[in-house]
Amino acid sequence: MVAKLPEEEHPKQAFGWAARDESGVLSPFNFSRRATGEKDVCFKVLYCGMCHSDLHMVKNEWGTSTYPLVPGHEIVGVVTEVGSKVEKFKVGDKVGVGCIVGSCHSCHNCTNNLENYCAETILTYGAKYYDGTITYGGYSDIMVADEHFIVRIPDTLPLDSTAPLLCAGITVYSPLKYYGLDKPGMHVGVVGLGGLGHMAVKFAKGMGVKVTVISTSPSKKQEAVEHLGADSFFSRDQDQMKATMGTMDGIIDTVSATHPLVPLIGLLKTNGKLILVGAPEKPLELAAFPLLMGRKMVGGSGIGGMEETQEMINFAAKHNITADIEVIPIEYVNTAMERMLKADVRYRFVIDISNTIKSTH
């Protein structure tokens, strides 16, 4: 059997930008999307955020990439077509798709609204869908997804700066809620002030929590306190660390580079929680005694289920929380990848898909 070309696999013509190999260089790509099934929602993509995962995936740094690869899992747009059995959405609705587009719907995780932890989760791009075809992400002009994995975007939220909430936003909102770090008056540390970190500050402040930013860049102090609303800031300075020992109820650690955990554990109160949401490639060193002396814990968290993702978006609308973004045309995407590698972005690139993606059909 001859393999079908990407543009012939499905009936809906689509156009995006794809990486063809491990160089990670993206270029224009004709492909196709499936016909809108009875439970599917088809939408015109207006904006797509650029997540650090996109960078890892285009270069196959996690060893799971298949090419051609169309990245993008912070996707927002407007509904153009709905299937006959779709109940929650109609043409013209503002919607979004995050990191996942499928799960088994029957396991313990799925029945508890934790589709993100389902063993059969289907990722928005670079994964195999039920029909055997590869999923393509949001660096493209149209998207088709099952309504279960579609999020409604309230009219009060601007689409461009809301896109990053679908990955970065839920990644920090979920642990704040689950680990009980959302109670007004609590003291929470946020390690790293990038795409995830700046969202953690905004959501924690929205919950009424006192926030301290911990960063290796002293230059970010003004930004953290004056612009993002953090209550305090310190770079990992020994004296400042000592002065803050034992004062935090929890810490959201967003750093993806290898870094020492013991000094952070020292900042926690008794029963404090250090929650990792960044994913360093090499194992981190963890001594037992700092955990024993104070009944402390180190935990993790990865995105969130669909119900919680919608709850997060609604919370963002209520508290006027959006990402700080730099909007770019699709032609700039390779340069943006290089800048993202150097952390040269405040704090998220968002591609203006509808105005800059031009089909070659």
UniProtKB/TrEMBL annotation:
Query: What PROSITE patterns does the annotation carry?
Result: ADH_ZINC
Keyword flag Plastid:
no
Which Gene Ontology molecular-function terms are recorded?
mannitol dehydrogenase activity; zinc ion binding
Domain Enoyl reductase (ER), first and last residues per copy = 24-351
Q: What is its EC number?
A: 1.1.1.255
Q: Which CDD domains match?
A: CAD1
A single GO BP term for this record reads:
lignin biosynthetic process
Cofactor(s) for this protein? Zn(2+)
Q: Which family does it belong to?
A: Belongs to the zinc-containing alcohol dehydrogenase family.
Give a short account of what the protein does: Oxidizes mannitol to mannose. Provides the initial step by which translocated mannitol is committed to central metabolism and, by regulating mannitol pool size, is important in regulating salt tolerance at the cellular level.
The protein, known as = mannitol dehydrogenase
Q: Tell me what organism the protein belongs to.
A: Hevea brasiliensis (Para rubber tree)
Taxonomy of the source species: Eukaryota, Viridiplantae, Streptophyta, Embryophyta, Tracheophyta
